[in-house]
Amino acid sequence: MQCDICGKKKATVHLTEIVDQQMSEMHLCEECARQKSVQMEQQFGLADLLAGLADMGSKTGTTTNKEAAAAAKTAALTCAKCNLSYDDFRKFGRLGCGHCYISFKEQLDALLKKIHGSNHHLGKMIAKTKKTVALPKNKKDDLSTLRQDLQEAIHSEDFEKAALIRDKIRDLEKKDK
Amino acid sequence: MRLDDLINHTGEWLKGTGPYAHIVTSSRVRLARNLSSFPFPNKCSKKELDEVLETIDKAVSQIDLLKDCANLHISDLDSVDRQFLVERHLMSHDHASNPEGKGLVLSKEEILSVMINEEDHFRIQVMQSGLNLTETWKIINALDDALSSKLGYAFYPEWGFLTACPTNTGTAMRGSVMLHLPALVMTKQINKVLTAISKLSFASRGFYGEGTQASGNFYQISNQVSLGHSEEDIIQNINGLIKQIIEQEEQARQALQLQNRPMLEDKICRSYGLLKHAHIISSQETIELLSMVRLGIDMGILSDVSHKTINQLFLMIQPAHLQKIEGKKLNAFERDTKRASLIRQKLGG
């Protein structure tokens, strides 16, 4: 028997797959089987793990009607800009546009914390004049705006201004606690 | 710059110099960036992908640091050329397998490359030889500054750089270091090391990229967490971890030497002999033997061959490279003979 994929080498690996209750058999040579298994591993990749994580918030098993309704509501959430549904994000593990971060803010806040152990950017900032995604302001946003201002002040070597901003940040952080 | 010109040399990052070059082959930093005015590539129409490509191409052409770069559209390349670029670590498998609307900007020494319209609108990569993440970060940071002055990034101060996959959000930075760890493998300590690495939220993969098994005793270690730390902190953390692994590998090498130097010499010299005289050889066998020869150089057992030659061979023995060198398509058997003759020629067998 020859390999189903390359049709050249002898098939030594026999693979049975069940997709949607349909059983299919494949006969592969060692090389093609190896490639296929790499593909399969990649298919069960990040998206599956992410989907698992994104689901973790909603309890499985015995759920009250109220909880089920809330879960259904989350799944039906859709990004106003690119039309991606939260359900599709859970399935494929990819967001559709920058605006998705606003549309799914609540869910992503929790997810980012699970993935990274933090949901607050402490890295590089970009100049404020550039077009950036604007999010509704809240207390935390004020903090991050201040942090951005601080970076800019340091960058332009305006250390007096930087010191003032640093003190403001400290005050805000104290209030946060 | 023509793609065929690359064949006659390998990238600067494989030259086998820099700090800890006996264990660390190369350092790489990658930044993912998206434009605020377009959906992410997976949600882009064909027309939008082309517009993104055009927008980024235009910005690239205005930046001094990228002046002498080649600017390739992947759909213009044939399958061997695409595979060739993947083998050289200049772009990903995904980028090659679905070429529509995708681009690649590439510097002559292959230090720097930009993948356009992969998972994100663009991903900048900078590679250096040896353990050199700090320098690598400086180069890529300057390039990112230049690009951000021309392009409106998808950025949100609270969450940093917005990426298609939330595992990259924040700094959207991945720093990786390629390590050659034959002694940890031979003394059966490698699994302990890898387990510790994953517990510390670092990832390890093989020389030949994502989804590949470690082969030739090469391990690529990179950060998993991209949010909640500054880029400098992430790099410092990787550096700290890598230095510990280097120390472990050095101790294991010492132990191997003390335990049974004649056996080690025999294994290394036999590997060298096989490579110098074989007429048919598979890539897997080659990789294992090259790994032993590399160790032989580090331990002062072999002196008539350089790190650079061995590093280059790891790259050149791959299928698309052999076919580019030969200038035609080769089947598996033809590749195995071509591979053997290339190695004999490089090692003076």
Structure description:
Chain A is mainly α and 177 residues long. In chain A, 54% of the residues lie in helices and 8% in strands. Chain A contains eight helices and two strands; from the N terminus they run E-E-H-H-H-H-H-H-H-H. Chain A has helices at 30-43, 46-56, 65-76, 86-92, 100-103, 105-116, 139-155, 159-176; strands at residues 13-19, 22-28. In chain A, strands 1-2 form a two-stranded antiparallel sheet. In chain A, helix 2 (46-56) crosses helix 4. The termini of chain A are far apart. Mean pLDDT of chain A is 74; it is low at 57-62 and 129-139. Chain B has 349 residues and is α+β, with helices and mostly antiparallel strands. Chain B has a single domain, classed as Glutamine synthetase/guanido kinase, catalytic domain (Creatine Kinase, Chain A, domain 2). In chain B, 45% of the residues lie in helices and 15% in strands. Chain B has eleven helices and ten strands. Chain B has helices at residues 46-61, 79-87, 93-97, 133-148, 182-186, 190-199, 231-277, 283-298, 307-316, 319-326, 332-347; strands spanning 24-33, 70-73, 103-106, 112-116, 122-129, 155-156, 160-161, 173-180, 202-205, 218-223. In chain B, helix 2 crosses helix 10, helix 7 packs across helix 8 and helix 8 packs antiparallel against helix 9. At the A-B interface, helix 1, helix 6 and helix 7 of A face helix 4, strand 6 and strand 7 of B.
